[in-house]
Amino acid sequence: MENKQIIGLFVHNHPGVLLRVTSLISRRGFNIDSLTVSPAAVEGYSRMTIRLQGTEDDVDQFINQIMKIVDVKRAEVMPQGASVASELMLIKVSCRDHDTNDILAVTSKYHASLVNLGDNSMTFRASGAPEDIDTLVSELSPFGIMEMARTGIAALEYGDKCLNT
Amino acid sequence: MKLNGSEIIAECLLEQGVDTVFGYPGGAVLNIYDALYKYSDRITHILSSHEQGAAHAADGYARTTGKCGVVIATSGPGATNLVTGIATAYMDSIPMVAITGNVTNDLLARDSFQEVDICGITLPVTKHNFIVKDVNDLADVIRKAFRIAMSGRKGPVLIDIPKDVTGALCEYTPRTPDVLSDPVLSSAEDFAAAAEIIANAKRPMIYMGGGVVSSGAEAELLEFAEKTDCPVASSVMGLGGFPASHRLFMGTIGMHGGYETGKATDNCDVIITVGARFSDRVAGDRKKFGQDAKIIQLDIDRAEINKNVKIDSYLLGDLKDTLKLLTIACDRTTHKQWNEQLSEWSKKGAVTETPASENYAHPYHVIEAVRKLTKDSDIIVTDVGQHQMWVSQKYRFEEPRTWCTSGGLGTMGYGMGAAVGSAVAHPDRRVVLFTGDGSFHMNLNELATVKSYNLPITIIVMNNTVLGMVRQWQKLFYGCRFSQTDPHRATDFVKLADAFGVKGLRIHNDDDVESVLAEAFSKTEPVVIDCRISPDENVLPMIPPGKTVDDMITEME
Fold it and tell me: What is the pTM of this model?
């Protein structure tokens, strides 16, 4: 059965490591919808977070293949229900044909904050679980989404376990 | 002591026990070649005609010795010419370190003369690659490159070095290389589970591949097969890893494998896969491959488990260790009835040979005649195409590392370079290259190398005047529309050999085979034999792509 799994990678911060990971994803035909890179808690290392769509076997094969990249030190599934996943979005909504209060009624439900008000637009910052961000986007779409930027997913497993070791 | 980057390269090669390298000089590697001049008493450099030939030579050297092959080329076109050779080694898990020069650091990324991003280009065909921008990193990168190439599932590693780095001075401290060992990652329970499947098997078989040779696990496999009385089928890459004369050896498995191995795959109840990867040339229909069997897989690469075929039980680690432990966990058994059944299939599957002709020799006849003249330790190299499959079917390999062929990538033009590498590595053994007129035309420039170093290679050109393997597919699947497979070339291979300063001989038909081969084998110099083969000769039997033994083609026309 296909579903979405979030995988955390702990990698050496060497030039080209992102290319090695994306090249593998592309040539092995894996289906991903989010990839983020940031410094890890340990100097000289980066943290990558990838959301992959596929069966359990696909996820298994993905981790086995990715672990063959010399610069990848660890790769693990962030277990559903036992990890936190979050992303940040900036979204510009048209308020030309709508009452701004209607828009604010939606955004306040998701704790999105208004960061800028233009002549015909409102720009919000929202963060949270990727599914909640998806829902917010769909609820805002009737007003007219002019532009949006999403950071992609960051995820950490619950408890004391770390990927950094 | 302070050395320049090029001397550090030479010192690090010596640290790793390298005494032979293959390559071709150029602007960006002038410093390296200057160091090779200085170190010429300790490092032999073999100069090829083309960088591709040098890469295949390093590959042939690695396959026949088990050591890491080393190839050096200049920046830009020198580096890109290595790519096919590196990809060939990658597909067959052959350890190789490729060293390329690049433009100086200040000229990088400016589209400078002979600049190319070889790390970007070789990314999908190397285990890893490096660009060394600081001479202080150089020695450790080289050590790491060898470690990566030779550990786990082996393969090629590329090191790209800007020219200023090869000239810069740096403190060098010698270091003895690490002893490499790949741990067994499976538990005692895993071995017990696999052993139980084998104990319950009534009709087991072993499917072995190149991993057996790569690991050097021939003795362990033999012991396991004998203890469990399991018949053995080999991929093309596995040949030599199990003696062909052994009662349990069935031959090759897959597209041009025997009827017996195909029937065994379909009718067995357990397949023990040893260092093989279920490629499409073996598991044509991967959903149906061994569909009634439990499949056990022994491999060093975790990513091979469940990649193409669903596995029931697997053991991870160096085959030498995992086979030994599995053998201990298994009881001695016999499968008399099953082995008798296989012999019967073997008789049924015999292919009828085409009738003799005064214009052509029969390829099987040539291969069998060569086999009568060679020792078990002599080395057989092939190019790619029909001749390659005929050799894989008919030549009886008894010893590991006596077989060089491009199994995974199927690189036409591989043979000449690989034969050079094999002959350089083994001056005491005979090297026979079987090639086709198509493959030979691709890299016959290496005849110049063969002559320069007077390498006593016997080159047998199975000359059917057509691109036989593609033509065979056109016969079978494209209504005999022979698009671009009959090149109408007028090359006279005997005269060609003569022009390179090499002896040329000709086999016109079956009557010449023994006498011409005897003459060639009496010499200690290179010989090219133009061996006339019918353009209508086919490789049979054949399982069409995506099919099983039930669809096997045993006759054509």
Answer: 0.96
